[in-house]
Structures are given as structure tokens and as C-alpha cells.
Design goal:
Layout: H1 2-19, H2 29-58, H3 60-111, H4 115-127
Helix pairs in contact: 2-3
């Protein structure tokens, strides 16, 4: 019993910090989207069951028609909702990654002072570079024309 109370207290504290985060430093949408999908699954199933039962109460043929049509409607509707929710998840994950990249900018700004050091050492690195034995060709005029490697006809 105490473990359950501790778990509920931890969940309450977690939700309190997420829901009352006035700086919006944490995204709660990524955690709510699966719950929205579960709600869509349950409500779609309930709605289709209601239509099938109502159809059978009105007319048995109408109920049979709704019963045959409901799996197709269910699959199309759930697939469309799933695609939209996955798109939202991708957008939120991209946002999270962009936030991480913007936080990396601070460390890049700190390292930008190293450019003065590399400007001083660049002439020294040129001394230790190996030079090519042969000069590279600068124009296409020096290259021979392509040869035709076909066999002559017999």
C-alpha cells in the first residue's frame, strides 16, 4: 500500500512540474499523444458499436450493412489518425533536437576563441605538409582522347 502511495505521489509531482511549467522548458505533448491515440481507438470502437446496434434496432439489413462496413471505416479512420499523430510526434521530436542544437551554440561560442590560436599556427603546419611528386594536370588538353574498346566485326 505504501508503494502505491509513493508511486501516485511521484506521478502527481511529475505532472505538477510538467503542467505548471510556465517557462515551457519541457514538452508534455510527446507524452500525451499516445493517450490521445488510445482515446481515439476506444471512442471509434464505441461509436461503431453504437451504429451497428442502432442499425440492427432500426432494420436488420441496415444493421448487417453497418456490421460489414464498420471494419473498413475503423481501419481507414484509425490509419488516418495514426498518421496525423505520428506527424505530430515527428514535429515535436524535431523541436526537441533543435533545442539541443541551440544549446550547443554556447559551447561553440566558447571554442570560437581558438581561431586566433589556429591563425598563428597555420604557417607552421604548411612547413610539415608533404608535397606531391608530380604536379596535377590543370587542363583537359593534356589528357589523351578516349579510346574505343569495341572489337572489330568479324
Amino acid at each position: 500500500m505504501t508503494n502505491l502511495l509513493k508511486m501516485l505521489e511521484a506521478i502527481g509531482l511529475y505532472l505538477k512540474t510538467l503542467l505548471f511549467d510556465l517557462n515551457f522548458s519541457h514538452y508534455i505533448s510527446l507524452q500525451i499523444i499516445p493517450l490521445c491515440y488510445l482515446f481515439i481507438l476506444i471512442s471509434t470502437t464505441g461509436g461503431l458499436v453504437f451504429f451497428v446496434v442502432d442499425g440492427f434496432m432500426t432494420n436488420p439489413w441496415l444493421g448487417l450493412f453497418y456490421l460489414c462496413l464498420s471494419p473498413l471505416i475503423f481501419l481507414i479512420w484509425i490509419s488516418a489518425c495514426r498518421m496525423v499523430l505520428e506527424l505530430l510526434m515527428v514535429i515535436f521530436r524535431i523541436t526537441v533536437q533543435l533545442d539541443e542544437v541551440s544549446m550547443m551554440r554556447e559551447s561553440v561560442d566558447k571554442l570560437s576563441g581558438l581561431s586566433e590560436v589556429t591563425a598563428l599556427t597555420r604557417p607552421l603546419t604548411r612547413l610539415f605538409q608533404t608535397r606531391p611528386v608530380r604536379e596535377p594536370r590543370s587542363s583537359r588538353q593534356d589528357t589523351p582522347p578516349p579510346t574505343n574498346h569495341r572489337r572489330p566485326p568479324n
